[in-house]
Structures are given as C-alpha cells and as structure tokens.
Amino acid sequence: MISFLISIAVLVVGFLTYGKLTEKVFSPDDRETPAVRINDGVDCVPMKTWKAFLVQLLNIAGTGPIFGALMGACFGPIVFLWIIFGAVLGGAVHDYMTGMISSRHDGRSIAELSGIYLGSAAKWVMRIFSVVLLLLTGTVFVNSPAALLARLTPEALGTTFWIVVILVYYIIATLVPIDKVIGKIYPVFGIILIVMAVSIIGGIFAGGYHIPEITFENMHPKGLAVWPFMFITVACGAISGFHATQSPMIAKCITSEKEGRKVFYGAMIAESVIALVWAAGGVAFYGTTEMLSDALTELGQSGVVYDISTGMLGMVGGILAIVGVVVCPITSGDTAFRSARLILAEWTKLDQKSIKNRLFITVPLLGAGALLTQLDFNVLWRYFSWSNQTLAMVSLWVATSYLLKTSKNKVSSLLTGLPASFMSAVSLTYILLADEGFKLSKAIAYPCGMTFAAVLFAVYVFILVKTKGDKQKKA
C-alpha cells in the first residue's frame, strides 16, 4: 500500500518539476496557435484550457491504461516503476513535445512532422504506419466497450449489436466539427472517468484489500520476461505512440502555447494515475499474479474489469466504474478514426471543410474498422501494443531532431534523445522475440535490440556534437 501511495506522489511531483523542465526546454511563447490563427470551424477550434485537458485525457485514455495495466500487473508490483518513471520521463514528455511541435506547424500530424524533421522517406513510412495503428486502435476500442456493454444489457443486445451502435457513433463523431460532439460531451465523460478511478481507490481502501509493495522480482506466472514484454504490455499507461496521433488534434484547439504543460503533460500524468489504480486493483482483488493471470485467460480483460468493479463496489458502484471503462475506449476510438481522417486528408490534400470530402475518407475507414472487428481481440492487442510503442520511438526521435534544430542549448535534446533510445531497444527486442514477430531466442534478440539502440544513440551524439561545433563556429 505504501508503494502505491508513493507512486501517486511521484507522478504529482513529476508533473510539478520534470513537467516544468520539459516546458522550459521547449520554451513556449506568445505566438498565435492554429485555433486562433486558422480557426476553420471544423478541426481548428478554440477550447478553454480545462476543456482541452479533459478532451485530451479522454482521447488518450482508452482501454490501454486499464487493460494494459491489468496485464502488466501480472509481472507484479514492479509494474508500478515502469508506469511512474515511464510516464514522467518518457510518456508525458512525448505527449507534450508532439503536441507543441504540431502547434507550431499548423496542427500537422506526426506523419507530416516526421517528414519535416526526419526526411521524406520517414514521412511516407509514418503516413502508412500511423493510419494502420489508428485503424487497429479504433478497432480495439470498438470490441472492448461492446463486450462490456453486452454484459450490462439484455441478451438480445449482444456484442454485435453494440459494435454496430459504436461504429455509427464513430461516423458521427469523425465527421462533425470537433466542438459539436467531442467538445460538448467529453468534459462530462471526463468527470465520469475521474469518479470511476476514485471509486476503485475507495473500494481498495474500504474493502481492506492488500496492495503488495514494490520489488524487482518478476512474478509473472508464465515466466514471461520483464524485458521487453512488460514495457510493451502496459503501453498507454506509461508511454504511447497513439498519443502522438492525438496530441496534434488538441494542438489545433489550445489558445496559447503556455497551456501545453497542463493539457499534454498533465493529461498523460492523469492517465498514468488511472493505470496505477487498475494495476493495484487487479493484484489486490485477485490476491496473486497467478490468480489475476488465470482470470484474464478465463474471463478476458472485460470480464476482469467487471469482476473487480462489482466485487469492490457492489452492483451500483460497479456499473458506475464500468461506464467509465466503456467511456474510455469509445472516446479514444472515435478520435482514432478522426486522426486517421486528418492524416489521409493531409496526404490527399482534400479540404476538410467540405462534408463530401470528409465522407469520402471516413466511410472507407470505418468499413475497414468493421472488418477488423472480426479478428481475435488478443491478437489485435498484441499488434496494437507493438505498433504503439514503435510509433512512440519514432515520435521521440522527431522531437529530438526538432530540439537539435531549434533549441539554443542543444544538450537539452537529451530530454527526448534518452527515452527515444530506450524505446528503440524495447521495440526491436520485442518484435524479434514475440510469437507475433520473428520468434528468435533471447541470445539473438537482446544483443540486437541493444545494438540498435546504441547505434541510434551514437548517431544522435554525433549530430549533437556536430551541431554544437557549427554553432560555435558561427558565433
């Protein structure tokens, strides 16, 4: 229990200290943001800071910090360390930088930013990669809430019915101006989400559940290695490339660059608190990582959420908590498809003021998502998780390149260069080891992953030294 409380405190202190350092490195100023300068009435629309924060939180807080945290908790309380340090040093920095850099480029997507700072080849790769990730994300965030809703409604209203309902909603939310649906209902959903997390914490304390203290022991009942599997499994609760597709959306809505730390860095910290709550709740409710793992295998992620919620809070409180869990993925799924629409619009140069052009992109996107819902959720989740962390790696290198080119103190680019190198090792090592990847042995995968990261970091240091030398010559 003490470790859990300290972990919450670390996240808060991280926002107040490392968040300010991150803001100082970026150096926000008084220039006009896209919401003010462009204000097209569809995607670039001014929002108040509190509303932008809640919309950003709902955009990024899908089932990742809940399902991912529960699966990550199977490794034991060591998962707390990845959530807090991953978020403060990596995830929140990632979200802030991608959002703020996008704001300085008229709200452009991470794919377009990759082209500007990593070259045209990176732009084309990231266009395809981002759209594929967003399709996987949107699909994951259709299946999981549909399964939960089916548990709460009569048998006639099964999972398929709710998939159709959610997809219809996604069409509406993807097409209409951002302030007409998302801007109006997300703040309400944000309050529900916060109440849900607080309820689970209250259930842990009121029920006398035991949260184990942090140790470095790997408690995964199947012996799955902490490195790199835990770092991929938790995903959104610590660092998430999906957020790089969402931050540009809200970058079009903030009215001042100085709002960025509260909106982008703050929303990631809030999501990490949610992840901590569910990781702690999973182990506390089931007692051991083995029992939690068995429950996940037998009931699925949705079933485990249902059991924890109703078991800790009773039926009324459980329904409240489950509504929060349903809201999370739906409010990330619709913005996943919206982000995909915006990326494709940049790619095809189709003006999105026209409803006809928005329909032209949206309908095929949702059709592809509907087809993907027929695939096994666990398979989708594994590919989503790896794609997610790989996109985070690229996004951090984009931010590093930006700081090398624009920052007066080039060494400050280590703020993103170090987590970028770390995620490079995580991403390659995982895909070499995983069953859905190349299924290589640790003897091959570990050295390859570390070498890959070391080479990228060496290239970064070379560019850093060269850039500093060029600056001194000019001076």
Biggest β-sheet strands, sense, barrel:
none
- Overall spatial form: globular
Number of helices: 17
Proportion of β residues? under 5%
DSSP helix fraction: over 70%
- Number of E strands: 0
> How are helices and strands ordered from N to C?
HHHHHHHHHHHHHHHHH
Helix and strand layout, with pairings?
Blueprint: H1 2-26, H2 34-37, H3 49-60, H4 64-72, H5 78-103, H6 110-118, H7 120-152, H8 159-175, H9 182-206, H10 226-233, H11 242-251, H12 260-286, H13 289-348, H14 355-372, H15 377-406, H16 414-433, H17 442-474
Describe this structure in words.
With 475 residues, the protein is mostly helical. The chain has helices at residues 2-26, 34-37, 49-60, 64-72, 78-103, 110-118, 120-152, 159-175, 182-206, 226-233, 242-251, 260-286, 289-348, 355-372, 377-406, 414-433, 442-474. The longest helix is centred in the C-terminal third of the chain and has 60 residues, at 289-348. The chain is globular, with a radius of gyration of 21 Å. It starts with a helix and ends with a helix. 55% of the residues are buried. The model has no long low-confidence stretch (mean pLDDT 87).
